[in-house]
């Protein structure tokens, strides 16, 4: 299974919590086409975010939308700058990032997000050649599931836009083949 982080969005460039209805940057989508040889003939899935669906199309995937591949719902923090939330709600932000069960923003806990992603990932175990296009938090949740990490542990992985992570299904779970492989130029 290949997991592709979707193309850059204005919120990513501005260090803001994601908004799901924003277009990906045209230049980043043009770069996504370089992934087409890697994903040709694969079963395509995309998170529901517009940028994920646009990236899948730019790669040449006829992707089905999987709600389970959505980024964690950050509730009232959607679209806000990280710096603003850190300044105005420092305790809430630290709590959300360190205790995977809390939901200070009215959205979704990181443990609920991780469980949602793990459930989808395990449903896809028997499917050959799956490519999923989604955002970084969802890919981190998949890596965490494969490695048995909690959400704060999985958050330690860096994932660039258009990077590729590969997970291999094993008899007992998953193996990580590579993480954050950059798109060829």
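^ Assign residues to that structure.
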């Amino acid at each position: 299974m290949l997991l592709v982080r979707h193309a850059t969005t204005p919120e990513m460039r501005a260090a803001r919590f994601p908004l799901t209805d924003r277009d990906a940057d045209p230049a980043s989508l043009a770069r996504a086409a370089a992934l087409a040889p890697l994903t040709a003939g694969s079963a395509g899935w995309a998170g529901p975010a517009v940028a994920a669906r646009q990236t899948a199309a730019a790669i040449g995937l006829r992707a089905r939308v999987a709600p389970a591949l959505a980024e964690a719902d950050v509730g009232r923090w959607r679209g806000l700058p990280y710096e603003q939330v850190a300044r105005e709600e420092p305790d809430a932000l630290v709590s959300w990032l360190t205790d995977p069960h809390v939901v200070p923003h009215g959205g979704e806990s990181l443990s609920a997000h991780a469980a949602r992603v793990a459930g989808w990932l395990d449903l896809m175990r028997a499917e050959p050649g799956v490519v999923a296009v989604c955002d970084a938090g969802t890919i981190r949740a998949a890596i965490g599931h494969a490695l048995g990490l909690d959400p704060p542990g999985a958050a330690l992985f860096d994932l660039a836009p258009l990077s590729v992570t590969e997970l291999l299904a094993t008899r007992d779970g998953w193996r990580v083949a590579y993480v954050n492989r950059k798109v060829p130029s």
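The first helix runs from residue 10 to 13.
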